[in-house]
Structures are given as C-alpha cells and as structure tokens.
Amino acid sequence: MKKLVAIVAGGDSSEYGVSLRSAEGILSFMDTERYETYIVEMRGTEWKVNYGLDQLAIDRADFSFTANGERRCFDFAYITIHGTPGENGVLQGYFDLIGIPYSTSGVLVEALTFNKFALNNFLRSFPDLKVSESVVVRKGQVRPSDSDILAYVGLPCFVKPNAGGSSFGVTKVKSADALTDAIDKAMMESNEVMIEKLLVGREITCGCYRSKEGVHAFPITEVVTTQEFFDYDAKYNGKVEEITPARITPQTAERVSAMTKRIYELLDCYGIIRIDYILSGKDGEEEINILEINTTPGMTATSFIPQQVAADGRQMKDVLSEIIEGKF
C-alpha cells in the first residue's frame, strides 16, 4: 500500500500564502506511484485536508481525517510552513508527541534556526563561521538608544523581525532618523527585532540535504537584484536574476559547499535546508559570511531548491522520496 503523506502548509504568519504555493509545488513533485498525498492547510486551530473538491477537518488528537466513512491516518508529514508553527519547532513537537515522522529537523534545531539572533550567537562560537554583528530589541523591554545601536552596527544597517521570513517587515536603514520607524515596522511581524550590520558583497545561496550517500550540497545559486535588497518583491515578483551554478571560482564553490555541509552536521539537521551567504573580498579568496539558515525553504517550481536540484542532475521526486523513506 502507498504511504499516506500530508503536505502541511499555511501557518500563522504573513507567509501563509507563500506556504500554500510551496505546498502546491511539493504536491507536483511527489512520486504518485509511491505516495498518496494531500495538502493539509493550517491556520490557528483550524486544520483541514484538501480531499478532492472538499476540505475535511483534521482530528488533532492523532492527525487523522474521515473520508467516505473511513478514518485515515497519515504516515508522514512533509512540513512546508514558512514561519510559526512549522519553522520554529512547535509543530515538530506535536508530531513527536503523536509519533508521526516529518520532513524537517527536530524541535531544538527548528527553534534555534528560527531565532536569528540566537542562531548567530551559536554560529559565532565557531571561529571559522562568520556572521554579521547584531543587536536585538524586544517588545515590552527598554530599548537601547538609537545612538547606542548605531554605534555598534553602523549605517546602513538592516532591521528585521528576529523570527520571520520572506523579508516581511525588513528595512534597509540608511539614516539614523529612520531607525525607530523600521523597528516599529518589524515589531508588527515579531516580538523581537534584530538590527544587523550591513554585509557588502555577492549574495549566494546553497541547498543541502542528507541523501543515502551522506550530507549532500546542491549547486550554488547567485542572487542578483535591482532592488535595495533581496526583498519580497524580488523573491516572488520576478525582480531578481538567479544564476545556477553561481559565477564564482571552483575553489570558492567548494568552500561554500563544505561550509554548508558542516553547518548541516553541526546542527544535526534533517530534510532540505538552504543557507544564504554574502561573499566579500577578492574572487577566489572571499570571506564567506552567513546570512540566514532556512529549514523549510520555498518549494515552488521556480524556487531556489528545485533549480539547484535540476542543476545537480537529480529529480525532485527522488529527493523528496529519500527524505520520506529516511524516516522509516
């Protein structure tokens, strides 16, 4: 019998719509000869499975649903929620409790990678891993003065929700008088806001997963945009050039791939992750600066990961199958 797979999408952040698009992408990639697959949409406590033309309620006691009088229990959850509760460990804890295997890393890794400030401080403990200097401010707590923040991170700087994605609430701040408004904007997305020193250089991104042969890094993508930065408009409205493989030296590509795999193993990740970097310095001798780790990266047909998988000569359905079968 085919395994019953839920593609879990939606969530409670501004990335709800992005998540649904990723779910449709994953559904199109799935090996239909091996898996019977349905999209489960979540928002708050409303969980529904798309079953034909109907949306049926999910029983949260065991993540099952009833169709045509038959109770059906999922064998596996492919999580593609960008933001809470699927990218911060909350949903992973639920699936651990009820004993359903899933596609991402575990609770600790998801919680750590979702908190940008905590993650940066963890990575900073390894001398060869470079991250930008940053300050965090929290809702309800006394903020450092703008002058103290800027004395540490300088101008221009980035202000971003400490827990969020798809560049929602992110501002590139160029003047001191714009900092407060940028922090208030980011607070609309997260109770914690990170103010980060600007990194200048070439932006690249590298996907990675654990295959049958071990941890495997995909070909690297170079990200070129005419926007101020790689914002929502650039990501989802085509205002970006994505070049795979990236126009970097073989030596740099090898170093980035090795770093991506090392971070994957340091964190003990599972499933597909994607790490974004800024390369600064002379070609072939660049400093590799870590921007962000995405543990549920976008999975539409035009997202980075499907591009990288294709450039690697692999099929998305085979990669997804390896992730699913790796839990059985």
Provide structural commentary.
The structure is a single chain. With 328 residues, the chain is α+β, with helices and mostly antiparallel strands. It has helices spanning 16-29, 90-98, 107-114, 116-123, 146-153, 179-187, 232-236, 250-267, 304-311, 316-325, and strands spanning 3-10, 35-43, 46-51, 54-57, 64-67, 70-73, 76-79, 130-131, 134-138, 157-161, 171-173, 192-197, 202-211, 214-217, 221-224, 241-243, 273-280, 287-294. Strands 8, 13, 14, 15, 16, 17 and 18 form a seven-stranded mixed beta sheet that branches. It has a five-stranded mixed beta sheet with strand order 4-3-2-1-7, with helices on one face. It has a four-stranded antiparallel beta sheet with strand order 9-12-10-11. It starts with a strand and ends with a helix.
